[in-house]
């Protein structure tokens, strides 16, 4: 199917919230990892979100140049074309844009979508993330408030991070043991006072409840998914809204238990980012292939090797399929498997 229209994306998120599941959002950095996501989602019968970071976009543009907006547009154009061949619906998103990268990442992409919409077409990306976790909350929300009307005008969704996700992702690093790892109700109230409940433009909120980017074993991070319910209930009580008024995003979920993920989803998470686990699945398959076929991929002792084994397509297919399996696991864990609106 073609990439989701703004209306389809909104339907995806609304359906997830109403039915109590979440969509996995996969970070990709190449055509191969993008294809792996499409393969895995199709095999699971799940819609999903495909996203790119500043580092991923830099890599799409060519690792010897710094042209992340170009790389992001190349990613999007490739995705728009190849997604037509798959029977599921995906949305495109840009992940973790800190303040120094706004000018050469998100802003040029919004401008490109503004031109598309002016020409009567859909936005190139269906959502963008502004990551203001490294600046004071007041400044974070001031910048979000400036971006949100532009997003509304192109019928796209803004993602904001309220609090701090520990660990490191693409150069954005935070310490993993301080109070900022837990968003407060007051933080959420400040967010609503600045951004509303969708009337100024739709947004998703990555509230933090002990999340940490990267690799960690279960039990080593003190997740408090119950905090999400406390915040949702507090907002409902203060403003008289329906239950779970915020659309929430779960960052830094690698190593989380099934129970923690299920509780977070039950408390309003509609999008969960997946990166570390799929990176490992892809690279582990490449490593396994190389070890098993070392005498074919290397010209050992002056031999000629085996072209069919060192052809990048040979090990690339193995890697894509292994990553696709991990993609499918995520859809089942989050409940989006067999929920495609395209079915």
From TrEMBL:
- State a single Gene Ontology molecular function: zinc ion binding
Record: residues binding Zn(2+) 2: 131, 161
**Which leading EC class covers this enzyme?**
lyase
Top-level lineage group: Bacteria
Cite the annotated pathway: Carbohydrate degradation; glycolysis; D-glyceraldehyde 3-phosphate and glycerone phosphate from D-glucose: step 4/4
- Reactions performed catalytically: beta-D-fructose 1,6-bisphosphate = D-glyceraldehyde 3-phosphate + dihydroxyacetone phosphate
Cellular component, GO, one term: cytosol
| Enzyme Commission no | 4.1.2.13
Of which family is this protein a member? Belongs to the class II fructose-bisphosphate aldolase family.
What binding details are noted for the cofactor?
Binds 2 Zn(2+) ions per subunit. One is catalytic and the other provides a structural contribution.
Keywords recorded for this protein, A-Z: Glycolysis, Lyase, Metal-binding, Zinc
The UniProt function text for this chain reads:
Catalyzes the aldol condensation of dihydroxyacetone phosphate (DHAP or glycerone-phosphate) with glyceraldehyde 3-phosphate (G3P) to form fructose 1,6-bisphosphate (FBP) in gluconeogenesis and the reverse reaction in glycolysis.
GO-annotated biological processes: glycolytic process
Question: What cofactors are annotated for this protein?
Answer: Zn(2+)
Species annotation:
Agromyces hippuratus
Q: Which residues form the signal peptide?
A: none
For the ligand (Zn(2+) 1), the binding residues are 96, 213, 251
Task: Report the active site residues.
Answer: 95
Q: Where does dihydroxyacetone phosphate bind?
A: 214, 252-254, 273-276
Q: What Gene3D superfamilies does the entry give? A: Aldolase class I (3.20.20.70)
Protein's UniProt name = Fructose-bisphosphate aldolase
């Amino acid at each position: 199917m073609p990439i989701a229209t703004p209306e389809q994306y909104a339907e995806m998120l609304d359906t997830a919230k109403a039915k109590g599941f979440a969509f996995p959002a996969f970070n990709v950095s190449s055509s191969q990892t993008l294809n792996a996501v499409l393969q895995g989602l199709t095999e699971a019968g799940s819609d999903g979100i495909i996203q790119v970071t500043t580092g991923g976009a830099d890599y799409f543009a060519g690792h010897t140049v710094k042209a992340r907006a170009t790389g992001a547009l190349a990613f999007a154009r490739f995705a728009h074309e190849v997604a037509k061949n798959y029977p599921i619906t995906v949305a495109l998103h840009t992940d973790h844009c800190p303040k120094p990268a706004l000018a050469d990442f998100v802003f040029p992409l919004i401008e490109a979508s503004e031109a598309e919409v002016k020409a009567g077409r859909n936005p190139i990306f269906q959502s963008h993330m502004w990551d203001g976790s490294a600046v004071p909350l007041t400044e974070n929300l001031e910048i979000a408030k400036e971006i949100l009307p532009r997003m509304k005008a192109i019928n796209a969704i803004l993602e904001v991070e309220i609090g701090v996700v520990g660990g490191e992702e693409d150069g954005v690093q935070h310490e993993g043991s301080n109070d900022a790892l837990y968003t407060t109700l007051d933080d959420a109230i400040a967010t609503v006072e600045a951004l509303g409940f969708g009337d100024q433009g739709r947004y998703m909120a990555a509230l933090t409840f002990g999340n940490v980017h990267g690799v960690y074993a279960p039990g080593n991070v003190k997740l408090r998914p119950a905090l999400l319910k406390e915040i949702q209930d507090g907002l409902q009580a203060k403003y008289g809204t329906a239950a779970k008024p915020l659309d929430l995003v779960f960052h830094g979920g690698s190593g989380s238990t099934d129970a923690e993920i299920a509780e977070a989803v039950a408390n309003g998470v509609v999008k969960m980012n997946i990166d570390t686990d799929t990176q490992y699945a892809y690279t582990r398959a490449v490593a396994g292939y190389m070890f098993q076929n070392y005498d074919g991929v290397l010209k050992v002792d002056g031999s000629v090797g085996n072209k069919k084994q060192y052809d990048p397509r040979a090990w690339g297919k193995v890697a894509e399929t292994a990553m696709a399996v991990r993609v499918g696991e995520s859809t089942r864990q989050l409940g989006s498997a067999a929920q495609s609106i395209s079915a």
